């Protein structure tokens, strides 16, 4: 096992907050002394299908702990997904069906082994919280026992609920119960550390309190930044169309990464790679490293991790050819899109997954070419059964509208 100092250096990379770091130090010291690994938990509610780079921020941090010899618990929140996490929500989430949750969960199980070592049960555990939130495990008396250990007043302290109360917006009982469910996961799993995004801080602190109430040593809470999507504004989200999926084709990944801002690129390096940050920042600052070259390297690192080095080099070569010779790449696959509205903003939104407002912004900037010509009119109508070669920034599409 690595020394305390080395472990802390690796663990703290990119972290926003550790509550409490002194407790983490004691846990690691005890782990080294007893040679007993810590139990590190991170929960993922399968509310959408497929894992994107935003999810991998936590998965990579789990991998850091795993590489240090600790046991990581990949918790699929299939029961909590049915309830809906109120974190960051201005209204009650739409309730999912069990079939929807299960379909999404299967994609998570399939993809997580691209990041974590999943074959060694000494360092990896896959859990589902439906295991303890279903009959006969979670009977009414268990519900009563959990509910009496936390007050409504404390639950209502969270900012999301306070804002809704002031705006006279409804809060369902299920939403109040969600933090208790997430906290109870920590009780069942006896976690030493829980990882989550900054929006999960309240829920994870409830876990600390519940562990104490159940007579356990409280977990350390470690928050990681929320990763902005390709628009550089909102949290990466499939519903917003600003995501980069780890199962997307290498060409899509390369193009999307090349489209992000220089500022966001630095954050991606810190949270999505193990590259030395001092070298990157100093190279950009003194001009030795051009942002475009840094982005290409970032794209290659990520494609290599989720595919292979050959695919990464092929996409770099294709990208260079397209931009140096101003040619449309030969190997862009044809997408057939069923679009009800064929004005450019609506049609390209359907085809690319980007929001209409994002498409309009790029049109205004002159960043969209259709069949070799720059287009700025969002209301211009495209035709069905005609193939279009579309370039949006540094991404290319061949699209046929049906």
Summary keywords:
single chain, 402 residues, alpha/beta, Rossmann fold, Tyrosyl-Transfer RNA Synthetase, Structural Genomics Hypothetical 15.5 Kd Protein In mrcA-pckA Intergenic Region, Chain A, 3 domains, 13% strand, globular
Terminal CA distance reads: 58 Å
Beta strand %: 5-15%
By secondary-structure content and strand pairing, the structural class works out as alpha/beta
Q: How big is the Rg? A: 23 Å
CATH class of the largest domain: Alpha Beta
Proper CATH architecture of the largest domain = 3-Layer(aba) Sandwich
What is the name of the CATH topology of the largest domain?
A: Rossmann fold
Main β sheet profile: 6 strands, mixed
Into how many domains do the coordinates divide?
A: 3
> Mean pLDDT, rounded to whole units?
87
Number of helices: 17
**Uncertain regions: pLDDT < 50 for 5+ in a row?**
none
